[in-house]
Structures are given as C-alpha cells and as structure tokens.
Amino acid sequence: MSLSEIKSRIAAAEAAANRTAGSVELIAVSKVQPNERVEAVLEEGHRVFGENRVQEAAGKWPEFRERFQGVDLHLIGPLQTNKARQAMELVNAIHSVDRPKLATTLARLAQELGQCPDLFIQVNTGEEEQKAGILPADADGFIQDCRDLDLPVKGLMCIPPVDEEASLHFALLAKIADRNGLAGLSMGMSGDFEGAIALGATHVRVGSAIFGDRTYSA
Ligand SMILES: *Cc1c(COP(=O)(O)O)cnc(C)c1O
User: Fold this and answer.
1) Residue 216's pLDDT is what?
2) Which atom of ligand 1 is nearest to the CA of 206?
3) Position 218 pLDDT exceeds 80
4) Which ligand 1 atom is at minimum distance from the Cα of 157?
5) Average pLDDT of the segment spanning 173-200
6) How do the domains of the chain map onto residue ranges?
7) Could you tell me if 205 and 27 are in contact, meaning their C-beta atoms sit under 8 angstroms apart?
C-alpha cells in the first residue's frame, strides 16, 4: 500500500465517523525499515514518524532532520529511565509513559532541560503480563500524579492484545481519556486504524501498511 492510499483511508474513516477532516494525525512507524523507504515517504512530503527504540531513532533521525524540515518524531516504544534524557532531546512526543518512576524522571529532566515532549500515558487495556502500561484501574490516579508533576499529558495510548477484538480496547481507552479530560488518543495500527478512528483516535500509528513488512534481522 502507499502513503496516499493510507491517507485517503484515514480521510474516509474521519468522514464516516463525522470527524473533522484532518483531525487524525498519521504517525508513519519507520522502525526497522530500510532508510530508502523512509526517505521515499519523506520525499512525498510526510513529516510525522514513529520509532520504538531511542537508539535506533538517534541513529537515523538527526541526519534526516538536516535534510528535511519540520520532522515531527514520536517515540512509541518502551523507554528506560537511563535513555529518558536522550529521548527528550530527540523526540517531539513520547507515547509510552507507563510507570511512576519514568514519570518522576521525565519531570526532573523537564525542569533541567526547560522543555518536555508531548506525553501520552500507555494503558495496558488487556491487562497483559508481558505488556507495558498502567492498568486500567490505576489509570486515573497515575494521570493525576503526572499532572501533579506538571508533565504535559496530552492523551492515552494502548496496544490491544493480538487475539482480542481491538474495538473493545479502543472504547475502554476512550472512556478513560474522556473521564480525565484528555483529548489525545493514540490507538490504531496497520490492521485496525479505521476502527480506532471510529472510536476517537487522534493519532494512528501505521507501519507495515505504509512501508511494507518489516524484515527483522538478528
Ligand atoms: C510497530 C508498532 C506499530 C506499527 O505497527 P504496524 O502493524 O506495522 O502498523 C504501532 N505501534 C507500536 C507501539 C509499534 O511498536
């Protein structure tokens, strides 16, 4: 599939849900993709990208940014506290604020750096043991704690369990965001972004549908 096809599918999903045209941000997830594929999407004029590892992002984006103006980079994968400073200096948004220790580290660094990326709190909607994120029952308290730390919390993020109906998880995330007065909803990937838009996604994270399959090398 191509970038323009994905964009028109997003536009159609916005219209079907009576959402404002252009209200959904497409994050092109470029992790593990060969640089020439990423470059092709940059050449097409797209500027919003997602990476899930700080090290990988630091390896390719400074150079792309020198060549392409206005890159908006989103970290969508787990963040270790010892990489938090590097992440904050590199990305415009972090979608994976998933535990108190990370929140306090981000708050301290925000003071020190005088800036902070937009933050999304990751909610483990499926309560999966192997998955990062705040449990739904703890979400309201954690959101409040982040606000008390003066962190710029823009919204919530989830990754539904692979074997479950994603829409149930999107609806749960939307409900938690709504009752906490949060506007941002980072949800929906290649296989389910239209359903996510129907349930209020403001940011969809689409990788393989734009770039093709990721071939993971050892
Ligand atoms: C890789 C990844 C995506 C993109 O997945 P696709 O199925 O390739 O669209 C979205 N969100 C997160 C958190 C990811 O790690």
Assistant:
1) 64
2) 9
3) no
4) 13
5) 98
6) 3-211
7) yes
Q: Given CA atoms 176, 178, 183, 186 in this order, what sign does their dihedral have?
A: positive
29: CA distance to ligand 1 center in Å?
6
Ligand 1 centroid distance, CA of 56 (Å): 15
Q: Is the CB of 198 under 6 A from ligand 1?
A: no
- Whole-number Å distance, alpha carbon 148 to ligand 1 midpoint, is 30
Residue 211 alpha carbon, nearest atom of ligand 1? 8
The Cα–Cα gap between 96 and 66 comes to 26
The architecture in CATH of the region 3-211 reads: Alpha-Beta Barrel (3.20)
Gap between the terminal Cα atoms of the chain: 26
Cβ 10 under 6 angstroms from ligand 1: no
Tokens at 171, concatenated: 């609806």
Q: 15: left (phi > 0), else alpha (psi -120 to 50), else beta?
A: alpha
Cα(152)–Cα(35) distance, integer angstroms: 31
Q: Is the CB of 190 under 6 A from ligand 1?
A: yes
Nearest CA to ligand 1 atom 4: 207
Q: Which atom of ligand 1 is nearest to the CA of 189?
A: 9
What percent of the chain is modeled with pLDDT above 90?
96
CA pair distance 197, 6, nearest whole angstrom: 13
Q: Which ranges constitute the DSSP H helices of 30-165?
A: 35-43, 54-67, 84-90, 100-113, 136-148
